[in-house]
Design goal:
By secondary structure, the protein is mainly alpha-helical. It is about 60% helix and about 5% strand. A hairpin with a 5-residue loop joins strand 8 and strand 9.
Length: about 650
């Protein structure tokens, strides 16, 4: 099947004017109606009760887009040419943007390759610049989330040449740390892929450089996926939107596993699409299969459930191809079929599966070294011991309470809600809304997504896999009670797929508008994208706060609190060797200051003070070479318990 074969099937029954204009105007009517439906109650509020003003609310989802949506009507009616005599450079740029990724049966000119690499380089540089800009807003502030400190802990462990450290034998509970196992082995609960990614950049002096680089690589790969699916125009638009996406830029300054996993997933997607192309042409495919398996394996070592969610549609197609038999239809418009020999199918399957088998073997060895059981991950063991109510699946609180033990972190564990079908449906809805909001915007993604769904038979199966990855990623996270950090982190990796679909739809509409005598409509499509970028990146007082600024303020709040705590500790310890016992604020589940290096060698160590269990006298005996302090995280009260023994 060719990339446009679906279009050809509908050509006989629909005119060129109706094939895309009807789906577009249906989507336009729906989205415009939703804008008015959602904003009308707020417009009718008294001025003193509006969160921001008449123009927009704090989430900036709807009202700024209404003028752009309404402009579609007069612009649609404008029939005179955009340019009476387009200059040569205008036509030349259009030709360059129309260049598509050559298939294995085509030859590639050096100039086409050069243009594609220059465009992808611009996209990558824009992604890195976006991450750098967001990072500058935080300055030297420490990380914001428990999880980040655990990933740093893991990277430091790997830099020491170890998979774990022994727990502090004399009093292990003193150094219990959020998201860090402390059951004989002192190790992060998380899978090893992210720690491996962070470690070299941490050694260079700035752990965030790694995530900025990952953002650049991910944007680069989105360009090439878009080029393969469509042309340079699709790749450039999707890649640039990925580069300046507010949510992606913000998460590139959180030391989580998402960006490393995203690099692996996008390598998997582009090489899998190349694999499909090679299989349809009868060219050598095992190399693409091997690279595809390597990408998915690395993503699995970062975020297994996410890798499974994104990979599932691709895996189902591959299984169908493997079992279907030797006949594989061409996708290049060449009549007939090419018979795939059994031997070649087995070679391709072996190349694809081999990295996954090796990845599981590494994971089993990693598990064995930390938990003592190859089939029990540190993540699973941590959940069972410390946060049983956070277990994956429905009815999690009931099951967790039944399995509750003496080491449960009650103030954090009881945060979990009991997952019911109603809560699961609410989470799916909110994850969908927040993923669109933080990726580009609800209005543009909803409009282009509706056009795609209405016209889905007209798209190639490559595009179906991109759309299915979004659905599958949401589906595998249905059985989890928490909607996610900032409402979407469990489905964060859907961001590039949303942007690819949006760019693909806009490209199809642009071609249809140009062919059906609506030459100004492509400008309207770009204005919709431009409004999204403006809302996301630029604060305009008093109209709206930029989405990226809202996110920076949200993350910055936690980072500033950690920085203030560290500054207080520095003031009362005076730079001397010390052990600071932290009495946790039971009302604050998301700020925990017991953070140490895995070897417990820092100048200042932090221990956990439990009023009903911590023996201060014993602690003094265990650390005679350190000053001993106690700080109450709830009140800020600091107490000197003992001076070190000179």
């Amino acid at each position: 099947m060719t990339k446009d074969s679906g279009d050809n099937e509908f050509a006989a029954s629909l005119t060129g004017r109706s094939r895309w204009s009807i789906p577009f105007w249906l989507a336009w009517l729906t989205v415009t109606g939703l804008v008015i439906w959602n904003e009308w109650p707020r417009w009718m509020m008294p001025a003193d009760k509006r969160a921001v003003g008449w123009w927009s609310d704090s989430s900036v989802d709807w009202t700024p887009f209404l003028p752009v949506l309404l402009l579609a009507i007069p612009i649609w009616l404008m029939r005179w040419p955009l340019l009476n005599r387009p200059p040569h450079w205008w036509s030349l740029v259009g030709q360059w943007l129309d260049e598509s990724c050559p298939t294995p049966l085509c030859t590639r000119s050096a100039s086409e390759n050069l243009r594609a690499f220059l465009l992808s380089g611009i996209v990558a540089a824009t992604g890195f610049a976006m991450s750098w800009y967001v990072g500058q807003q935080f300055g030297d502030l420490p990380p914001a989330y428990h999880d980040e400190y655990s990933y740093l802990f893991q990277a430091e462990t790997f830099l020491a040449g170890r998979l774990s450290f022994p727990s502090f034998e004399a009093m292990p509970e003193l150094f219990d740390q959020m998201h860090v196992l402390n059951e004989g082995r002192f190790a992060s609960r998380y899978f090893p892929g992210a720690g491996v990614w962070i470690a070299p950049f941490l050694r260079m002096g700035n752990a965030w450089w790694g995530h900025w680089t990952a953002h650049a690589i991910a944007s680069f790969l989105v360009f090439w996926i878009g080029r393969h699916l469509g042309n340079n125009r699709v790749g450039l638009l999707a890649g640039l939107l990925m580069a300046v996406s507010p949510g992606v830029g913000l998460f590139s300054n959180l030391l989580l596993a998402h960006h490393p996993a995203l690099v692996g997933l996008l390598i998997f997607v582009i090489t899998f699409l190349k694999l499909r192309e090679a299989l349809s042409c009868g060219t050598r495919a095992w190399g693409w299969a091997l690279m595809s398996g390597l990408g998915l394996t690395y993503a699995m070592l970062c975020r297994p459930m996410t890798a499974a969610g994104v990979g599932l549609p691709f895996g189902l197609w591959f299984g169908w191809w493997l079992l279907k038999g030797p006949a594989t239809p061409h996708r290049l418009g060449i009549p007939g079929q090419w018979n795939v020999p059994v031997r070649m199918r087995l070679q391709v399957a072996f190349a694809l599966v081999l990295p996954l088998v090796c990845g599981f073997a590494l994971l089993f060895a990693f598990n064995k070294a930390i938990t003592g059981d190859a089939l029990v991950t540190p993540y699973q063991q941590y959940t069972e011991i410390y946060t049983p109510r956070h277990v994956y699946g429905f009815n999690n609180r009931v099951r967790g309470e039944a399995a509750s033990g003496p080491k449960v972190l009650e103030h954090y564990d009881t945060w979990a809600e009991n997952l019911t079908p109603a809560l699961a449906a609410k989470n799916v809805w909110r994850r969908s809304i927040f993923s669109m909001r933080w990726t580009l915007g609800i209005v543009p993604l909803l409009l282009t997504g509706m056009v795609f769904l209405i016209t889905i038979p007209r798209w190639s199966s490559d595009w179906w896999l991109i759309a299915a990855a979004i659905v599958s990623l949401h589906a595998v996270h249905i059985p989890y009670w928490f909607e996610g950090i900032m409402g979407w982190h469990y489905v964060f990796e859907s961001a590039p797929f949303w942007l690819l679909l949006s760019a693909g739809v806009l490209d199809r509409l642009q071609r249809d508008w140009s062919a059906t005598d609506h030459p100004w409509m492509p400008i309207w499509g770009l204005s919709l994208v431009a409004m999204s970028v403006l809302v996301n990146l630029v604060t305009i007082v008093p109209l709206w706060p930029a989405r990226i600024d809202v996110g920076i303020a949200e993350v910055g709040f936690s980072r500033q609190r950690y920085a203030a705590f560290n500054q207080t500790v520095q003031q009362f310890t005076g730079g001397r060797r010390a052990l600071v016992l932290v009495q946790t604020d039971p009302s604050d589940r998301h700020m925990d200051y017991v953070v140490n290096d895995p070897g417990l060698q820092n100048q200042v160590l932090f221990g956990r003070f439990r009023s009903d269990a911590t023996d201060v006298g014993e602690v003094i005996k265990l650390f005679p070479d350190r000053d001993l302090w106690k700080i109450n995280a709830a009140t800020g009260e600091v107490t000197l318990l003992a001076r070190r023994n000179w």
